[in-house]
UniProtKB/TrEMBL annotation:
It comes from Psychrobacter piscatorii. It comes from the Bacteria. Pfam families: HTH_1, LysR_substrate. Signal peptide: none annotated. Coiled coil: none annotated. This is LysR family transcriptional regulator. Residues 1-58 form the HTH lysR-type domain.
Length: 337
């Protein structure tokens, strides 16, 4: 059993066609067939049912595919990391989610370049979830994201929590209310935009759930039953925030990204919650108001590989904390190991 045989098997398993797999791998069809036959002979197992079109994996083939594809991905990651260790790039490639760009990221990059005028920085708009694979492949060296991830290859630090604000159309009856409560927003159409969901189940604080339910019943609003909320985990981030108070929005709409969500708010099609750094966007049509709930926040994480930390990341962290100090933002200084 060798890598050529395994890669040939993965290509056929993915494409369900010898001709397509041969084209993808750059092998001739006879060579590809020979590699697969050698693999099956070595294992004394039939992995591919060749009598169906498209090709099917046998039960043994499905099991082998599930296990070996993970191993091959790890081999590719290790290979990429080894290459970077032997010849590290001088450029610092930074991934970020769009909401971070509206916050302090431009100031942080300017501070970084001020302290090191020779540094080359490349920025890439990429979701929190996609950043994990981009780090492993070497596409980025570090990422600013909004979600915690559990990945054996990745280490992360929490930079800070940013308060959510509610974004309402300027014509909305609550548009000029300076301090908003989630329970008062429950009858509105809530526009959801997150592409990454929370990896954990929602748990509802008992006292707050009961209080929220009492208020909701008084105002004839629809409230989550605590038992069903616990049995059906709510991982959509904005719905999770409402669920913490035992509230379910009356109706929701899901869109592809944050800009589309704010466009719909501007058009009067609903409301949404956004990090406070977004309050400069579409201010002619949108009113941003503070939420009274102190725990309704959006975290900002910094992710990088465990076994390869780019030499310029320590300078980036220094720039981040210097900007925080100048802005009077509370933080706890951390570093990657």
């Amino acid at each position: 059993m060798d890598l050529k045989q395994l890669n040939a098997f993965i290509a056929v398993a993915n494409l369900r066609s010898f001709s397509a797999a041969a084209e993808k791998t750059g092998l001739s069809q006879p060579s590809l067939s020979r590699l697969l036959k050698q693999l099956e002979t070595d294992m004394d197992v039939v992995l591919i049912d060749r009598y169906h079109r498209p090709l099917h994996l046998t039960e043994a083939g499905k099991f082998f595919y599930d296990k070996i594809s993970t191993i091959l991905t790890e081999i590719e990651t290790v290979t990429s990391m080894t290459q970077r260790l032997s010849a590290p790039s001088s450029a610092l490639n930074i991934g970020f989610v769009p909401s971070v760009l509206y916050g302090l990221l431009p100031e942080i990059i300017a501070m970084l370049k001020q302290s090191n005028s020779d540094i080359e920085v490349n920025l890439k708009d990429i979701s929190s979830y996609q950043q994990m694979e981009a780090l492993k492949s070497g596409e980025i060296d570090i990422g600013f994201g909004r979600f915690a991830h559990q990945d054996p290859w990745i280490q992360q630090i929490l930079l800070r929590h940013e308060r959510y604000v509610v974004a309402l159309p300027k014509s909305h009856p609550l548009a000029h209310v300076k301090e908003q409560r989630l329970i008062d927003l429950a009858n509105n159409r809530l526009i959801l935009y997150h592409q990454t969901h929370l990896p954990i189940a929602t748990t509802l604080p008992t006292s707050e759930s009961i209080k929220a339910k009492q208020e909701a019943n008084t105002k004839t609003r629809r409230v989550i039953n605590e038992k069903s909320a616990l049995s059906e985990p709510i991982t959509e981030p904005l719905l999770h925030l409402f669920a913490q108070y035992g509230i379910s929005p009356f109706v929701t709409t899901t869109v592809s990204d944050l800009q589309v969500a704010l466009g719909l708010v501007a058009a009067g099609e609903g409301i949404t919650l956004v990090p406070a750094s977004l309050t400069t966007v579409r201010t002619e049509q949108i009113s941003y108001q503070r939420l009274v709930h102190e725990n309704v926040t959006s975290p900002i994480y910094l992710h990088t590989l465990k076994d390869f930390v780019h030499p310029s990341i320590s300078e980036l962290l220094n720039a981040i904390y210097q900007v925080y100090e100048e802005r009077g933002i509370t933080y706890r200084r951390q570093k990657f190991v």
